[in-house]
Amino acid sequence: MASDPHPFDLNENGDATNHNQPTKKPKLSLITPSQIRSEFSHHDPLTARINNGSFGSCPKSVLAAQHDYQLKYLRQPDAFYFNRLKPSILRSRTVIKDLINADDVDEVSIVDNATTAASIVLQQTGRAFAEGRFDKGDAAVMLHYAYGAVKMSVQAYVTRAGGRVIEVQLPFPVTCNDEIISEFRKALERGKLDGHKVRLAVIDHITSMPCVVIPVKELVKICRDEGVDQIFVDAAHAIGSTNVNMKEIGADFYTSNLHKWFFCPPAVAFLYCRKSDKTLDLHHPVVSHEYGNGLAIESAWIGTRDYSAQLVVPEVVEFVNRFEGGIEGIRTRNHEKVVEMGEMLAKAWGTNLGSPPEMCSSMVMVGLPACLGISSDSDGFKLRTHLRDCFGVEVPIYYRAPKDGEINPLTGYARISHQVYNVVEEYYRFRDAVNKLVNNRVTCAALSC
């Protein structure tokens, strides 16, 4: 790890202190259940928060570290900017580089969220079309279940510049990886019709809604074999909930939020860009004084703002290492527990999971009783609002359009999450709320927003 070029900071008395000097920290013992409850005691006690996937969660100890950085900045902004900010961001980038098994810290940039990372990659693709390096009609391939903001970015930057967009039609419910791989191959073939090329593949590591773990390594290899120019993996939900290894995955670009499953405060994500000639022309969407000095440096300063969420990554590592097995142990236990809770709910409602357990991470799709009458996205939103307002249950609802010829299809699925703060009683509350609606013959048509 590089040392601070400006290691001195000001203490409360205004005296200079060297924060590169090693400090002895007490060795932390494994965290206890009561300590976990204390770390997340700021959560609303009246809500069964089984939706970690949407916004994540941050423990009190990390929030305290963030607040300390905020105060240090406010106490003496000039000293913080000139002496502390860049070295601290470099420390966080170095920690992330080791977490994701990247070759070089220069391959790691810190940005606000995965949506920002997608804009960075897709703007580069758009420029290639606009400047004639890619031919009009060449294709970008992405999953049908790509995140909505990423789809909008593809439209804004690629389609408008003359690129053709091909969506991979994925089945849901899904039973195995081969179903996904087969549809992906078909999309690549469509992209190469009439002599065109596939210039970019956008692949989710874990789709958001419906949530499914995608066989990303296999799809990246297929892209390489088929001559796809660049591969961008949108892994917003990945770090902290599944294995993330840049050498094994082999994509050109990979992004993941650290505030969803890695306990950082909002909003912070990383964008990995594998070193190659194809990844040189990348720029942060906000042009500031560091433009042209490389994406990592550009991203480290986009004007005056609160950078504290980006600085606490080392403190987050300290937090997760208080759990048995560290982050690997956390994600294993979350996976096992969310599958257990999903199967409990499906059994109680006479439904099924949306994918087999091996295609789940820390989130699972659970079929809702057909008698609830979920017949549109609007119905799903109304049911979600009703569960929140009337039962204190926070959970996203997915509407699945029925296929032709289906008899009594399941059209509604709940996406449940499990994080270290969750307890079984929260899932029982969800089960009982749905059972009450069913027993009272309540349908979505009778609900109001």
Descriptive overview:
With 449 residues, this protein is an alpha/beta fold. 40% of the residues lie in helices and 13% in strands. The protein contains 15 helices and 14 strands. It has helices at residues 33-39, 52-55, 60-75, 77-99, 114-130, 148-158, 177-191, 216-225, 246-249, 295-300, 308-311, 313-320, 326-349, 377-391, 424-439; strands spanning 8-10, 16-18, 48-49, 108-111, 139-143, 164-168, 198-204, 230-234, 253-257, 269-273, 363-367, 393-394, 397-399, 412-417. It has a seven-stranded mixed beta sheet, with helices on both faces. A three-stranded antiparallel beta sheet has the order 11-14-13. It has a two-stranded antiparallel ribbon with strand order 1-2. α3 (60-75) packs antiparallel against α4 (77-99), α5 runs parallel beside α6 (148-158) and α7 runs parallel beside α8 (216-225). The longest helix has 24 residues, at 326-349.
- Counting structural domains, the number is 2
Average pLDDT score: 92
> What's the alpha carbon Rg, rounded to whole Å?
23 Å
CATH class group of the largest domain: Alpha Beta
Low-confidence stretches: 1-20
The secondary-structure class comes to alpha/beta
Q: For the record, what is the CATH homologous superfamily label of the largest domain? A: Type I PLP-dependent aspartate aminotransferase-like (Major domain)
**Major pleated sheet:** 7 strands, mixed
Provide the β-strand percentage band.
Answer: 5-15%
Topology order in helix (H) and strand (E) letters: EEHEHHHEHEHEHEHEHEEHHHHEHEEEH
CATH architecture of the largest domain: 3-Layer(aba) Sandwich
Principal-axes shape call: globular
Give the oligomer, counting copies of the same chain as homo and different chains as hetero.
single chain
**What is the total tally of β strands?**
14
Q: What is CATH's topology name of the largest domain?
A: Aspartate Aminotransferase, domain 2
Report helical residue fraction: 40-55%
Number of helices: 15
Q: Order of strands side by side in the largest beta sheet? A: 4-10-9-8-7-5-6
Distance between the termini: 52 Å
